Amino acid sequence: WSQVLEETNNLEDLFQGVTVRPSVLHGDLWSGNCAGAGGEPCIFDPATYYGHHEAEWGMSWCASFGGKFWEGYRSLIPKDPGFDKRAILYELYHKLNHYNLFGGGYMSDSQRLLDRLLAA
Fold this sequence. Notes:
It contains four helices and four strands, in the order H-E-E-E-E-H-H-H. By secondary structure, the protein is α+β, with helices and mostly antiparallel strands.
């Protein structure tokens, strides 16, 4: 982690050219917290907080959002420059949290994400 901080100027380099405006986030957006009700999409069981809107997608690895979802989302909120690098950081947060809660393979997933941050 210290190497990631050193090589990204304490993460500041990941946010160059991006204005971060606090947004209300669901905070636990994965397939188990999405369903339909009355023929409409529904999300529930939030862990709500204010944060960078991109942080919402740190759990997308287990959300099963398909291409149509992302196409619709990106038609409303275009991908900001550097998102792909920040997405690694946001996923890392959740993988470390899952390791803390559940152990197992989340540690090796976290290490791979740290390596990807260093390579990005």
